[in-house]
Design goal:
This protein is an all-alpha fold. Helices cover 50% and strands 0% of the residues.
Length: 169
């Protein structure tokens, strides 16, 4: 036993031959079978990338090193997800927290809610506008007031590209 409970691997017996490094022959039906199985499981772009890697490693279509490799078209680039506009992120987050405050389920200050000081100002204004509506017309109408108020305030806040009065505004 070595220090820490780890053991050393046993030394190789010099009388045992080393493992062969030549690749094993592939039965001719196996590549066709594998291509049908993998086509059902993996997307075509992943299979094309795998084929490119294998061909670049020197394996041809027969699996033998040095065999001529067929040319493959490059895989199509995956579309990137669309970025959400800052005003939409602001509206979504502030409206969610404003509904929680209105319903009495929110806890903590603006930092624990993940809001900036400016976003918290928008939240307080929206909740103040929604409380009388909730008393007269119900919770659904109050949530509509919050959505409208927060949407307009976040759009005005980000009209010039972002908050302009310091990091927490």
């Amino acid at each position: 036993m070595e220090r820490g409970g780890a053991t050393r691997p046993a030394a190789r017996d010099p009388r045992r031959p080393l493992l062969a490094t030549a690749p094993l022959p592939t039965p001719p039906a196996l590549p066709a079978l594998l291509s049908r199985v993998f086509a059902r499981v993996f997307p075509a772009s992943l299979l094309a990338a795998l084929a490119t890697v294998l061909l670049a490693a020197g394996c041809g279509p027969s699996g033998r090193p040095g065999a001529p490799a067929p040319s493959l078209p490059p895989p199509a680039p995956a579309p990137s997800p669309a970025a959400t506009a800052p005003k939409d992120v602001c509206a979504r987050v502030v409206a969610h927290r404003a509904r929680e405050v209105l319903d009495g389920t929110a806890y903590g200050d603006y930092q624990s809610m993940g809001l900036s000081n400016g976003q918290y100002d928008i939240l307080r204004d929206a909740v103040a506008a929604a409380r009388p509506v909730r008393e007269r017309q119900g919770t659904a109408a109050a949530h509509d007031v919050i959505d409208r108020h927060v949407g307009e305030a976040c759009a005005a806040r980000h009209r010039t590209g972002g908050p302009d009065e310091g990091a927490w505004r």
